Input
Amino acid sequence: MPLFQCPTTRLVRRLAATFLLSALPLVAQAQAFPSRPIKMICPFTAGGSIDKLARLVSKKMEESLNQPVLVENRGGGGGVIGTKAMIDSKPDGYTIAILSPGSTSIPAALNPKMPYNIEKDMTYIVALASYVGAALVSPEFPPRTVKELVDYVKKNPDKVTFGSSGVGSSVHMMGELFAHAAGIKMLHIPFKGGGNGITDVLGGHVSIMMSSLAAAGPLINSGKLRALVAFDKQRYPTFPQVPAVTEDLPHFDPPVIWYGLAGPAGLPQPITDLLNREAQKAMATPDLQKEIVAGAYKVIGGSPRDYQELMRRDTKLMGDIVKSAGIKLE
Output
């Protein structure tokens, strides 16, 4: 033990000891995680494709975590209210959320006053899956292909409309991107939920409804609705009769309409990594794989960093769509 110790050395050791002591609770917390139920906020109402995926994944996760994973629907504000509730929670892993472009990249592009920063205010855990979108029409709608639709729109300017579940929704953006790639103009009709739009398509009040392919699966299979096109690069196995958009528009790169898990900023890395592993393990189980195919989802997976990079690319894409289409919040 030296008789004399430099003040700087003493300060460095004191700071190091303080840091180690402050880190111990986080380490202990991560090692014990989870010791009680986990809440998974779904920032949209029950019954939609994101809610369905949340319940499928949470059920499998709780089997391996040995703790309940409880889905809480907290809709409103296009997904912003529920996402903000997750962001404001304690970063201990016991409150997470299932997110989509509708509560992240799209409002970030539309609303400079959004109450959170998607880059700084959350911890990205894992990108779970994407869903295959589709343009749904009534069986009597004249065009049968994308090429026929383009010709029909050009011959009937200002006549063809497309519906979505709301201004700034993922399917609204999908419709705008498709119209831009096809070189056509269609009037957007926003609805409060996809079900109302499908009803209006069936009634002949709206030409096309942009939706997830699986959401209208029973109506497609019964012949009450027709899927004009699926927004994917290949035909989906459970809907082989629906043409992929790239069959008529080979240059079109369909957007990835993703769902993923995130927690508040500051979530400890060991907890983030554990939730990432458990979610991916859940997605890989055989019975969930069957549900994924039936629901027209496509597994994404990857690391937290992969998910963050997906978000960054998506935010840029949504910003480009908003600018080119002149979309504004109602």
